Amino acid sequence: MPYVALEPGGGGQLKGLCPFCSADEFYISPAKAVFSCFGCKQCGDTIGFLMLAADVDYATAQRMLDS
Q: What is the CATH number of the domain that holds 12?
């Protein structure tokens, strides 16, 4: 289930519209497996993203990644 359309953002990062505030300042670092938005200040790792975007708890986000 896609949440964000991404494009190259330079320096190995990807960028897109933030799914939380629609700011055009949402970046993902695949090498570090982290995301950040300079608009709403949300940031975290892969599980944290799933917890926020899908509104699920840690265990459910982990199961989503495992499947």
A: 3.90.580.10
